Amino acid sequence: MVAPDVGQGLIAIGAGLAIGLTGLGTGIAEKSIGAAAVGATAENPSFFSRGLIMTVIPETIVIFGIAIAFLILGS
Amino acid sequence: MLKPVEMRKVMIIGPTARLGDTVEELHRLNVLHFTDTGFESGGIFREGRPMERASDYSFKLLKIRAAKQIIGQRRENGGKRYAEQEIDSGMDSVMNAVEGILDVYKQKESLAERIRQLEEKRAEIEPLAAFPVALENYSGLSSVDAFVGTVKAPVEEEIGRVTSRFEMFKSGDGKFVALFADRKYSGEIRALLSTFDFKEFKVPRLTGRATERISELSAQIEELMRQISDLDSRLEDISAKNSGLLNAAEEVVSADVSKAEAPLRFSVTEREFVATGWVPAESLDTLNSRISSATSGKVYVTVQEATAVKTSAGGTNEKEEDDSPPVKLRNPSPSRPYELLVRLFSLPGYGEYDPTIVVAVTFAIFVGLMINDLGYGILMVILGYILVLYFRESKDMRQLAYILMTSGAAGAVFGVFVFGLAFGIPITARPLLDPANFHVAEGLVLLCITIGLLHMGLGYVFRLTEGLGRREYRQAAASAGWLMLLTGFVTAIAGIGKGNIPIGSAIWNYLFFWASGPTITVSSLAVPEYSIVLVAGGLSVLIFTEGAFALLESVSLLANVISYARLAAIAIAGAALAGAINTMLMPGSFFANPFRYTAVIFTLILAQIFIFIMLTLSASIQALRLNYIEFFIKFFKGGGRAYKPFGMSRKYTMER
Fold first, then answer.
1. Are A51 and A38 in contact (CB under 8 A)?
2. Residues in chain B whose beta carbon is closer than 8 A to a beta carbon of chain A?
3. Residues B348, B636: contact at Cβ < 8 Å?
4. Contact status, residue B196 vs residue B155, Cβ threshold 8 Å
5. Which of B344, B345, B562 sits opposite A67 (nearest CB)?
6. Closest residue to A56, CB basis, from B500, B562, B625
7. Percent of chain B with pLDDT over 90
8. Which residues, in sequence order, are bridge partners of residue A32?
9. How many CB atoms lie within 10 A of CB B86?
10. Chain B contacts of A49, Cβ < 8 Å?
11. Given an 8 Å threshold on Cβ–Cβ distance, is A49 in contact with B345?
12. Mutate to test the interface with A, among B562, B620, B632 (most CBs of A within 10 A)
């Protein structure tokens, strides 16, 4: 049996955590913005595009996660 | 092309006797956007009065629309256009058809009401159908009283104790009863029944057996139903003959209404009228000559001070907004449907850049890059085509469909030449970029960030030229500073990545070769000196122009840059998801058993549809977001007023 490379495994776990946890963070942030945006759109449909934009703003967080994951995996 | 159409403010002045001709000609020209003349009424000026015919026209329009509502908009005109004279001279026959439709509708309504009454009546005697008693006997007997109604429990036995002189009929469950008893015992029986929660049932004053009456009523109802369906086919007949004509008539009459009401937008005195409004600069000559020839030179069009024309960007003050020129976008036809995406955010202000072309190009490229699959791309095109077929009438939907089709086509092209995938299945032996290879993914991220530099850089260039155009040099310098900072960030990332990322060196050699030179090692990363110079230079320009707060904002610019990595992330995620589904569901062994075979095919199709929907949705939202947030924020203010010229575009009729 080939001895598993513990270091490489840890790197993979780190990259996974970077994406997974930032994904969670994004989800939590988008949850409340999304709820408010849906409410606002229900009252005034012309708010739709602005609501959509505001809802996706926290997505940058998970993009950061991806960037970090790439840095970890690439190093 | 990059800016909204140039507008001129005009004032139209003439004798009141020529008001009608002027309105007629303006409506035909369809170029003048009316504004408030600004003359206080109460002085010599007052608001113009609608022409006398206005209420007559409005009434006609109301009837035509009601008739159209009744027959429903089922028929296209088949491209047939009526001459306006044809409608005008045939208006009597149109109105006859309209009255006919309204009349049939009223008849239908009254028949329906009659049916409702008969049904009510039938429901009243239906419970009595089970009893073999003529209806007149429930009330007409001299020595016998009838008790008809519901009781909570069988009551026959108790009645028997009061008297034996009774006859009783009851429904299957014994709760609905018809009791006939000697009048002498009425009082006692009533008291007894009340302990059984007796609720009296009102028997209608009719004669004969209930069943006979019911079948009579049913026959009547049936007859009325038949009459209604006769009317329906008559309606169908009228609408088949006239629906095209009705559409055309509605168009003509609504034009008449708006012409008849137009004087409300004029200021008039005893003898003269004045109107002000905006006209596209290129239509000014036409307006001038056509008005003059239509009124034999009695009405003048004068252009007002051009200095009054300011940019309307960001105007929130209502009064200011009313003064600003209206905005009419003009784009070459391939990118025109993308105006929808810009309008969804906000109409550009007058004098601002119209980003439609940039949005069109980048949206298609972004979505194409993220879809990156021949199969899904073709599906998007088909979806767009279906939308076109189903929503011929709605302009917004047609534009949306066009956007879907163009970006789907881009996705298909990318799918063939970049990832080499169709529904996640490799179609080329050696794709340009293999999404399964980690280093390729890194290269893709770098490529996307470079795209971000071009995209956001363009935004800063727009703001820079806008600043120069308005002689706001501080704004121009700040934009230049941001541009330096942005270039510094991206060259730094590209410089670090060029050595160990596959397409990194290609990107560097084609785009950033000018920045080659000595590097400085920052925590084991080799950063090109040029990048550091650019970042430092940009930051110092920003501190001078925008203050120290810009240092904080520079971090959000870095976040914007990294934000473009989402293009790569979604492209790879989509390809990986499709690949995973295919690998799981397509091993050969499944195909041995016919039951498994069908189940696997079914699941595979469902999963592919799911991936297609997810991918299309997130690709378009992200492409939109990169434009709205990363790009627009750099220069775009919006808040323009839409240009709404007085007149109409005709669909069913031709001009007089």
1. yes
2. 344-345, 438, 441-442, 445, 500-501, 559, 562-563, 565-566, 569, 621-622, 624-625, 628-629
3. yes
4. yes
5. B562
6. B625
7. 23
8. none
9. 15
10. 344-345, 628
11. yes
12. B562
**What distance in Å separates residue B344's CA from the closest CA in chain A?**
6
Q: Are residues B472 and B426 in the same domain?
A: no
Contact assignment for B566 to A59 by CB distance below 8 Å:
yes
Chain B nearest C-alpha distance from A61 (Å):
9
Q: Quick one: pLDDT at residue B55?
A: 85
Distance from CA of B98 to the nearest CA of A (A): 36
* Contact flag B565-A67 (C-beta cutoff 8 Å): yes
> Is B414 in the same domain as B467?
no
ipTM score for this prediction: 0.79
Local confidence band at B308 (pLDDT 50, 70, 90 cut-offs): very low
What's the confidence (pLDDT) of residue B590? 59
Please indicate whether, in this complex, the C-beta atoms of B562 and A74 are within 8 angstroms of each other. Answer: no
- CATH code for position B182: 3.30.70
d(CA B591, CA B604) in angstroms, rounded, equals 13
Q: How far is CA B96 from the centre of its chain?
A: 35
User: Cβ of B632: how many Cβ atoms within 10 Å?
Assistant: 21
Kindly tell me if the per-residue pLDDT of A4 is higher than 80: no
Overall average pLDDT of the B285-307 stretch: 82
Assess whether B150 and B186 both reside in one domain.
yes
Residue B615 has which token pair?
């991918």
B470 contact partners, CB below 8 Å, separation of at least 6: B311
Contacts of B15 (CB under 8 A, 6+ apart): B271, B272, B273, B298, B299
Quote the percentage of chain B above a pLDDT of 70: 94
Q: Do B565 and A56 touch (CB under 8 A)?
A: no
pLDDT digits (tens, 9 = 90+) for B312-361: 444 444 444 457 888 999 888 888 999 988 988 888 988 889 999 999 99
Same domain, B620 and B532: no
> Do B442 and A48 make contact, defined as CB atoms within 8 angstroms?
no
| Number of CB pairs, chain A paired with chain B, less than 8 A apart | 45
CA B573 from chain centre, in angstroms, equals 31
- Torsion over CA of A19, A25, A29 and A31, rounded to 10 degrees? 80
Type of residue found at B448: C
Q: How far is B255 from chain A (nearest CA, A)?
A: 29
pLDDT at B302 over 80: yes
| Residue of A48, A53, A60 lying closest to B563 (CB–CB) | A60
B79 — pLDDT class (breaks 50, 70, 90): low
Question: Is B127 inside a domain boundary?
Answer: no
pLDDT tens string B574-603: 998 998 888 888 766 556 677 777 888 888
Distance separating the N- and C-terminal Cα atoms of chain B:
33
- pLDDT band at residue B390 under the 50/70/90 scheme: confident
Q: Which domain holds residue B466?
A: 443-563
CA distance B442 to chain A (A): 7
User: Is residue B255, in this structure, part of any structural domain at all?
Assistant: no
Q: Does residue B365 sit within a domain?
A: yes
Q: Which of B344, B500, B561 is the best mutation test for A, with the most CBs of A within 10 A? A: B344
Task: Return the bridge partners of B13, or none.
Answer: B274, B300
Domains contained in chain B, number: 3
Indicate the residue type of B281: A
B338 within some domain = yes
Query: Residue A57: which pLDDT band, with cuts at 50, 70 and 90?
Result: confident
Which residue of A53, A73, A74 is in closest CB contact with B629? A53
Mutation to test the B interface, candidates A33, A55, A60, most B Cβ within 10 Å: A60
State whether B429 and B538 are in the same domain.
no
| Tens digits of residue pLDDT in B177-199 | 888 888 888 888 888 888 888 88
d(CA B253, CA B72): 19
Q: Kindly list the residues from chain B whose CB atom is less than 8 angstroms away from the CB atom of residue A57.
A: 629
